[in-house]
Amino acid sequence: MNDLTTPERRKIRVSVCMATYKGEPFVQEQVASILAELGPDDELVIVDDASPDGTASIIEAIPDPRIRLVRAPSNRGYVRTFEEAVRLCRGEYIFLSDQDDIWIPGRVGLMIAALAKSQVVASNFDMLGGGPRPWIPRLRSTDSRRHLANLAAILIGFRAYYGCGMAFRRDALRYFAPIPRYVRESHDLWLAVCGNVAGSITHLDESTILRRLHEENQTPAGWRSLPKILAARVMLLRLMAEACRRTRKRF
Predict the structure, then answer these.
(1) Domain at 155, CATH number
(2) Which region, left, alpha or beta, applies to residue 9 given φ > 0 means left and ψ of -120 to 50 means alpha?
(3) Which residue in 95, 217, 51 sits closest to 60, CA to CA?
(4) pLDDT digit string (tens) for 55-92?
(5) Of 32, 47, 154, 169, which one is least surrounded by beta carbons within 10 A?
């Protein structure tokens, strides 16, 4: 079990979990924006997924004791890398972070306030440089308690749950981890499914990150083929059933 305190025995408040892979062009700027939001007893847990470039070396060169870097011996994909980072974290509030975005000042305080009443929080994002957003509508705070509608919207691909804009309380780990082995993408949708099935998720109207779109993004930029769409929907139905089992929630 992870020690939930610093070497000075102070309780860790926030853990930020980041998976990196070939993030050399952007990771330093993202790390700087995260560290500016963290307190002295918070931590940034980074698991590098065997990057072939200088990503890990760039992180190692940042002189901040709040950073904990783990180098994976082989490439496992971003879902398993995120899962390892989450398992290593020690904070009461667990934030997910991509390697190439920018955190907006005030993000941590805003999301922790939401986590006082919900186990999971999901926020919106704006585009770095002010470009157009993806077509999926922004999250609305008024939909926070419409759990069945949110699950239906997840199933049809109409809810903007992005892991880079999400956080959860440590007590949600009991149903989030381990991530089912058949999940090879969309760990963020798994967290959103869990929060909605448990009836404990808050949507924020505000944007808390600036997303950067580029060729290496893991989130698909265009339409998928029909077989991939159907396979994703089957996976989501399985995840909803698994979330019901773990949370013992009945609708």
Answers:
(1) 3.90.550.10
(2) left
(3) 51
(4) 999 999 999 999 999 999 999 999 999 999 999 999 99
(5) 32
